[in-house]
Design a protein that fits this description.
There is one protein chain. The chain has a single domain, classed as Up-down Bundle (Glycerol uptake facilitator protein), CATH 1.20.1080.10. About 75% of the residues lie in helices and about 0% in strands.
């Protein structure tokens, strides 16, 4: 069978976290850059579908293709390493420290941002005919997304910041579930099917993903969106990064580690059953 039991993929999660902590700087940056670039292209793909079909469900159904591609190619998203790297420290793997975790997070953040920004610039060229025309319909829609998900939160004050944070927590609950789900199968088709489901859920529900937003919001600014870099960072990217960390580490990494990697001893219904088992 291609299905991997929970206790086995829990061990794989810890192994993956350990490997990422010790990965060379060059490899970490390249893999993060490509992950950010591919996910950004998938976001542009999804917005294009939504604009051309008028159906956001269709866009959500197809968006996970980007996540599947980058995962199968061994690239890294910040949302994934938020969940996996701390487990190696918690499991007390030799040489794994919080300093190593923070190093990995910093490198992956920089790589993801550079990749997403590269795609944002390239797509802005496409949307504006090399900046010689006004943005096309898709470009205009991206600008609108950026406005509503920065100034909209800002207008609500503290309640807006709470909302963006909670949406980010829920997002990485699903996205990290997709990362772990890929470990549940040894076949490519099984990995794709397992990843597809939680990514579809996060995208359709409009949750906040820090790397997707690294594309959407800088793109929106370049394409005429009426919000600033400060609006983007204060009312979206910073609280979203924090929320993604909390969601992935608690609801996915922490829970699976606690019950599958560190499974408690089985309870016996009675002394007679314990004797029978022996």
């Amino acid at each position: 069978m291609s299905y991997v039991m929970p206790k086995e993929f829990a061990a794989k999660m810890v192994d993956a976290g350990e490997a990422k902590i010790f990965m060379a700087t060059k490899d970490t940056l390249i893999r993060a850059f490509m992950a950010g670039a591919i996910l950004a292209l998938a976001a542009a793909f999804a917005v294009t579908i939504a604009v051309n079909t008028g159906n956001f469900l269709v866009a959500s159904l197809l968006f996970p293709v980007g996540f599947c591609m980058l995962y199968l190619m061994g690239f890294d998203l910040l949302t994934g390493v938020f969940t996996l790297c701390p487990l190696a420290v918690i499991a007390k793997r030799p040489g794994c420290t919080w300093k190593g975790v923070f190093r990995n997070w910093g490198l992956v953040f920089c790589g993801n941002f550079a990749g997403a920004m590269t795609t944002a610039i390239l797509m802005a060229v496409v949307f504006t005919m090399g900046f010689s025309q006004e943005p096309n319909e898709v470009g205009q829609r991206i600008g609108t997304i950026g406005e509503s998900r920065t100034l909209g939160y800002a207008a609500a004050g503290g309640a807006g910041l709470l909302t963006v944070f909670v949406r980010a927590v829920l997002c990485n609950w699903m996205v990290s579930t997709g990362v772990v789900a890929a470990m549940m199968s040894t076949s490519t088709s099984g990995k794709i099917m397992a990843m597809w489901m939680p990514i579809l859920v996060f995208f359709y529900l409009g949750f906040e993903h820090s790397i997707v937003n690294m594309f959407l919001f800088p793109s929106g600014i370049m394409l005429g969106g009426e919000f600033t870099w400060a609006d983007y960072l204060i009312y979206n990217e910073i609280p979203v990064v924090v929320g993604n960390l909390v969601g992935g580490l608690t609801f996915v990494g922490g829970m699976i580690y606690a019950t599958h990697f560190r499974e408690s001893p089985k309870r016996n219904a009675s002394p007679d059953l314990r004797v029978a088992a022996e």
